[in-house]
Design goal:
Blueprint: H1 2-30, H2 33-55, H3 73-82
Helix pairs in contact: 1-2
Amino acid sequence: MDNILMTLVLLAGAVLPVQAGANAQLSKRFGCPLTATTLQLLIGTAVLLVVAALSGALDAPMTLPRVPWWHAMGGLASALYVV
């Protein structure tokens, strides 16, 4: 599992510079940056669900109600960053 995660980390670093350009092109295609961002985040969510399923961590979101509200602010920060 560590090899898979290390590979994902390296891939994330490699494609990060492409992300802004891809979002800009989607924005042009759809005519709306929010639509492009929504699509991009939906694709990311699907990929992360597959990774969570493969790692056996699909039950982790069930613990969300038991953590302080500000622990979930990373999701908001991600959305704002992409927008």
